[in-house]
C-alpha cells in the first residue's frame, strides 16, 4: 500500500537530482556568487528531503504496520514542507540574481518552491487524518495521498525550470551545495 507513495516520491527525488548535473562552461562570476549563496543554504534542505524520501521508501519496502507508515510519512511530509519553504526563503535572501529579468525569475522560482511546500503540508494533513486501524480505508487513503504527489512536486519542477530559463542553470549546477549524492540502489 505504501509502495505507491515510495514510487511517487522517486519522481520528487528526481526533481532535486536535476540539480546534480554537470556545470556548463565558464559561468559568469556574479551568477556563480549568487548561486553559491543559494546553494549553500539549499544543501542542508536537499539532504533533509533526500533523507525523508529514503524513510518513506524504507517503510514501503518493509512490512511496516499502518501506524508506523502513517507516522513516517507524516514526519517526512513535514520535513519536506519546511525544506521547500526554506529553499524559497534562500532564493529571496540571496538577492536578485544577476540575469535578465532576475527579480521575476527569482520570485517565480520562490513561489514554485512555496507551492510545493504547501502541497506537502496538505499531504501531511491528509496522512494524519487517516485511520490506521481500518486497513482498507487506510490503504485507500494512502493511494489518494500517493496520487497527489505528482501535483505536489510540480511547483518545485517549475521553480527549477524558471531558474534554468532565466540563465541560472549552469551557475547553480556548478555549485557543490546544489549537488545531491544519490544513494546506491538497494535490493528490495
Kindly describe this structure:
It comes from Streptomyces nojiriensis. The chain has one domain (3-9, 30-178). The chain contains six helices and no strands. It has helices spanning 3-17, 29-61, 66-93, 102-129, 135-165, 169-173. It is elongated, with a radius of gyration of 17 Å. Mean pLDDT is 84; it is low at 17-27 and 183-188.
Explain briefly what this protein structure is.
By secondary structure, the chain is an all-alpha fold.
Topology of this structure?
Elements: H1 3-17, H2 29-61, H3 66-93, H4 102-129, H5 135-165, H6 169-173
Helix pairs in contact: 1-2, 1-5, 2-3, 3-4, 4-5
* Computed Rg: 17 Å
Q: Indicate the overall shape.
A: elongated
State the share of residues found in helices, binned by percent.
Answer: over 70%
Stretches where pLDDT is under 50 for at least 5 consecutive residues are 17-27, 183-188
Number of domains: 1
Salient structural properties:
188 residues, mainly alpha, 6 helices, elongated, disordered C terminus, Small secreted protein
Amino acid at each position: 500500500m505504501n509502495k505507491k507513495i515510495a514510487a511517487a516520491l522517486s519522481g520528487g527525488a528526481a526533481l532535486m537530482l536535476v540539480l546534480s548535473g554537470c556545470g556548463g562552461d565558464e559561468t559568469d562570476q556574479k551568477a556563480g556568487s549568487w548561486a553559491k549563496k543559494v546553494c549553500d543554504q539549499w544543501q542542508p534542505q536537499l539532504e533533509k528531503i533526500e533523507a525523508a524520501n529514503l524513510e518513506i521508501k524504507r517503510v514501503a519496502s518493509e512490512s511496516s504496520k499502518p501506524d508506523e507508515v502513517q507516522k513516517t510519512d507524516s514526519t517526512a511530509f513535514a520535513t519536506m514542507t519546511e525544506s521547500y519553504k526554506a529553499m524559497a526563503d534562500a532564493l529571496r535572501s540571496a538577492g536578485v540574481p544577476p540575469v535578465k529579468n532576475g527579480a521575476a525569475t527569482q520570485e517565480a522560482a520562490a513561489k514554485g518552491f512555496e507551492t510545493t511546500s504547501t502541497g506537502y503540508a496538505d499531504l501531511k494533513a491528509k496522512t494524519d487524518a487517516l485511520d490506521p486501524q481500518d486497513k482498507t480505508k487506510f490503504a485507500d487513503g494512502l493511494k489518494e495521498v500517493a496520487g497527489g504527489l505528482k501535483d505536489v512536486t510540480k511547483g518545485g519542477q517549475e521553480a527549477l525550470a524558471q531558474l534554468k530559463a532565466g540563465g541560472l542553470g549552469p551557475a547553480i549546477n556548478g555549485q557543490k551545495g546544489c549537488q545531491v549524492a544519490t544513494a546506491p540502489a538497494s535490493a528490495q
